[in-house]
Write a structure and sequence with these properties.
Strand order of the largest sheet: 1-2-3-4-5-6-7-9-8
Shape: globular
Strand content: 25-35%
Distance between the termini: 23 Å
Number of helices: 5
Number of strands: 9
Radius of gyration: 15 Å
Order of helices and strands: EEEHHHEEEHEHEE
Structural class: alpha+beta
Helix content: 25-40%
Amino acid sequence: MTDTATLGVPVIETERCRLRAKTLEDFPFYRDLWADPEVTRFIGGGARSEEDTWAKFLRTAGCWKLLGYGYWALEEKSSGELIGQVGFGEFKRTLTPTLKGTLEIGWVLSPAAYGKGYASEAAHAAVRWGDEAFPGKVMSCIIDPAHAASIRVAEKCGFRETGRADYLGSEVVMMHRY
């Protein structure tokens, strides 16, 4: 299932997906992904500028070097096309109760990949990797309460709602997997 890629980022293969290290050549895809209002409607702050996306791109990739985990580029294996990202971060969010010290998982897919089960498949693979790499570590996520599809993905991966909180002026569902 897993082998080691450059910079220590594991490559994970599922039936239909490949989770791999991000490359500089991937940035145009992410720039367009995060600028799409359909993609960001449930992710606080709305569409992102190229500058904001560049900072996010570097931050999520840099987590691997400093924390031993981060976000993978998500490819559809049959086409080799990028369809999103999935992974873990430590974002030091100003949130009560805090998520600090947990593996905070997230996923973002392009609209062309919606409704095909890729998010569940990729998130399951990431969770399995997290369980092996960080046994016993609590995993968490925050999701807009109106994003039913994303909540279903989290529940399929064993996450359960532990509360609600205000984050940057919007309500979020806090979910944990113990």
